[in-house]
Give the backbone structure.
Amino acid sequence: MIRTVDDGLSYLVKVTDASLLDDYLNSAVDLARQYAATTALCGILVTRHAHDTYTVAVSEAVPFGETRERLDF
């Protein structure tokens, strides 16, 4: 499942089947990248909250054109 959290700025990715994780994360990153490209000021931050839950967000803390990952558990 990919759910929009903040009007195109943030997406919640939650999976019940590990084989879908890469596809869901890639889709969420693509959606966030589309928004980030309109501003050319932000990058993408992927945060792992649990083995099955991630947030993909447009972030001013990440330079434009970059995607960074972090753990939050």
Notes: The first strand starts at residue 2 and ends at 4. The beta strands are 2-4, 10-14, 43-50, 53-59, 67-71.
